[in-house]
Amino acid sequence: MVNEFYDPEDCMGFMTYTTSRLLSATLHRYMEEMGLELTSEQWGMLVQLFNRGNIHQEEITRVSGVDKSTTSRTLGLMERRGLIVRRTYPLDTRRKILSPTPKANAIKEDSLRAVQDTLAQALKGIDPEERRICLQVLGQVKKNLQESTTRRDE
To answer: Which of 40, 100, 132, 140 would bridge 104 by S-S if both were Cys, CB 3.0 to 4.6 A apart?
Structure first.
């Protein structure tokens, strides 16, 4: 007989964590099938550069929701692979401006297709209204947690 202490399947934290890991693994598989050596973390950072143009490394850290060392390590790998260029900001030599390279731009469409295929698989059978509500709820949860973190940091 199983004595159930806690049901993780009924916990938003567990479900979002495991779902996120599955999304990342599925995206990685689709990327590999297309011949792209790109992780979900790298794609998330590249998409910020595609959408915003040249931005500061600190901005990538902020919007990615990861710590500075993880951002720096991921960007370093992307730089070594020729996907991004880091340049020193003219007014503050400690800051770095990031730009996608022609190599990154060359994989832009294929990587987007891999993301779209991943999301199509993940959202199969889910009504568009349910998707909208899910995103709205997750957005509010994210906002609540960001506010909680900000209050602690003050």
So the answer is: 100
Could you read off the pLDDT of 49-97 as tens digits, one per residue? Answer: 999 988 999 999 988 888 999 999 999 999 999 999 999 888 888 888 9
CB 103 within 8 A of CB 83: yes
**One domain, residues 97 and 76:** yes
CA distance 18 to 25: 11
- If pLDDT is split at 50, 70 and 90, which confidence band does 151 have? low
The residue segments making up the domain with residue 22 are 9-38
CB 34 within 8 A of CB 117: no
Cβ atoms of 100 and 32 closer than 8 Å: no
